[in-house]
Amino acid sequence: MKKITFAFLMILLCCSQNFNAAVLIGHRGSYWGVENTEEAFRKGAQFGYNGLETDIKVTSDTKFVCCHDDDLSRFGHSSANVASSTLAQLKALQLSQTRGGQTYTATICTLEEYLDICKEYDVFPVIELKWATGINSNDCSNLPALVEVVRSKGMFEKAIFLTSMKPCLEFIRTNYPTATIQLLCYANSMESNLQWCINNRADIDVCVGPEFTANLVKRYHDNGLLVNVWTINTVALYQEYRTKGCDMFTTDYLDLLGILEPDDEVRFVSLWTKTLEQAPYLTNTTSQRSMAVYNGELYIPDMTTAKIAVVDGKTGDLKRTIQTNLDATSLSCIRFTHDGVMLLGSTNNAQDVLTIYRCDENGVTNLVGSKTITGFGQADYFDVYGNLDGSDGGFIVAASNQGKAVKIPFGNGMLNEPFLFDGHKSSNAAGTHAIVQSDTTFFVTGFRVARKLLSLDGKWSKSFSSPSPSALAVDGVCFALNGHEYYGSMETRFGVLKLFDITHGLDSPVVFDNATEALGSAANTAITSPVCVESTPDYVTIYVLATNNGIAAYRLQKKSVGLTSVDNTLPSFYIKNGAVVLLNAVGEMVSVYDIMGRMLISESVSTSPFAINRLPKNQSYIIKVGDTAFKTVL
User: CB 593: neighbour CB atoms within 10 A?
Assistant: First the structure.
């Protein structure tokens, strides 16, 4: 994403991406007042909008006023034409507008007055240029004077210049190269305008419409451009376009608190990343094709050496190595049962025979079972659920490259009889995985095969609706946090992770977080990128291995646990009785901002715990501890 020239919007967008918050822009100020007048602007800022949009026209004495139309007929003055009236003549008129059953009155607002309000409330101005004298596709002679007004108010670095008139934006880009500009258009021209926006370093502001797709948003993002959308006045519409990846939302009256959902109460953070060179336990071959985590330690088998690297999940550093006596294909997959039994195995490149071993910390292995499953095919990977050694038992589930799936119940240390049924049904899909979601369901994946959720009795299956994981994705992981169900998809063989919130089913998936960066680009013929998770009530740690490239750890955590880290000596926070309570932050500066970015509190933390209890309730806040910021709601 491109570097924004004004710092405040960059902070807001950063918060938006990290915390799923919205950057909202009040359309013509807001719905509460005569549009484009002081009351509407002030009410929009007070309501919590991050930016205020206005429309600019030019009077006969070359003054800039906030008005969408050529005349004031919608406000009770059909004979008052803006271009042929002086500012004094327009100021003498009382404007009237009924909105939402309430009638408002006001006087016309100048550009200077609008900018003063933006400055007073510390919101960014979005200045839409309407066709006017000296501001149009044929004549840009009044643009320098307009830009000078914005500069004189100290708002140039924060301002967005918006219009559908490309010559005006080209004039601004040429003469004011650091200006932030947006092209206004309808959804049906979003694709055709992409190259122009790239050439002119212009973000885009698009009207809702059927041609407005997540793929187009991604193409703008891939070229460092932001996407604004108008006009978003309902939570449902906001959710639809948030899912498509939009950065800003222009609205008349959308309630900021109304869009805070349970998944807005978690945040995704990167814990550590190691390259092949930084992690000597990784090989530069494709012999490490699986990974599992147990009690904070990662277990990574190497099919070439028959060794298992045990890695500290907190740091990514090697702790020890376990030497086994198994052949290469038996180390294709590793999993832990709920009672802590390490299992290794696969079909050993054979058809229809799945062999599972157990392995202890000394590398001693014992055969759990070898099951012949006629018609099953080859499976390099499996997944487990439940307790192997307990009487309550559990099961192994596996999916073959040939499109079949199998469930093998286990208990008391033994495998029971397998149950065969259809998987993805493809006749040959390399890298097929079975991924347990619950005690009754599991996902089946395969290279260039759509993900499917299957019941363990084989009676039904479901596929992802849009947005869906990449067809190149072959590994994934399921977990729950904060009342939400997630599917983590390894989008490529190079460690690219994308999280899907599937709480409302596969018919309504939501991309919780855009894909992480690839861990490298070295060849990976294993057609897999191992991933595993370890869950606690407050957070889930996700580990990603890109064979022949690198390894990384991420965390999805409740905001109520604050800056939770793998190191519990680092600062954290929680909410208690309406107060923000900081832990492990002695000596740090803590600053609290309202949703518009105004600093409310800034002080040094002197004790642990340290309570901040002077904040009004039922509001959103940005809290900064040291160099890290997060968003919360009291």
Answer: 21
Rounded Cα distance, 213 and 137, in Å: 29
pLDDT tens track for 368-409: 999 999 999 999 999 999 999 989 999 999 999 899 999 999
Ramachandran assignment for 134, one of left (phi > 0), alpha (psi -120 to 50 degrees), beta (any other)? left
Most confident of 10-19, 356-365, 478-487, 625-634: 356-365
The CATH class, in words, for 266-561 is mainly beta
Residue pointed to by tokens 């599991």: 442
| Start-end of H helices in 432-480 | none
Residue 89 near residue 163, CB atoms below 8 Å: no
User: What backbone phi and psi angles, to 5 degrees, belong to 305?
Assistant: -100, -10
* Phi and psi at residue 53, to the nearest 5°: -95, 145
As given in the structure block, the two tokens for residue 320 are: 């020890």
Q: Fold for 572-633, please state it.
A: Immunoglobulin-like (2.60.40)
In angstroms and rounded to an integer, the radius of gyration of the C-alpha atoms of the chain is: 29
What is d(CA 583, CA 625) in angstroms, rounded to the nearest whole number? 11
DSSP 8-state secondary structure symbol assigned to residue 508: S
pLDDT in tens, 530-580: 999 999 888 899 999 998 899 999 998 876 544 433 344 556 666 655 667
Domain boundaries, the chain: 7-56+111-254, 266-561, 572-633
Strand partners, 455: 441
Burial class of residue 154, CB neighbours in 10 A (0-12, 13-18, 19+): exposed
CATH number 2.160.20.10 given to 7-56+111-254: no
**Can you list the positions of beta strands (E) in 149-290?**
160-163, 180-185, 203-207, 227-230, 248-251, 266-275
Nearest Cα to Cα of residue 395 among 460, 352, 443, 442: 442
Q: Pick the closest to residue 271 from 511, 567, 548, 530 (CA basis).
A: 567
**DSSP reduced 3-state for 28:** coil
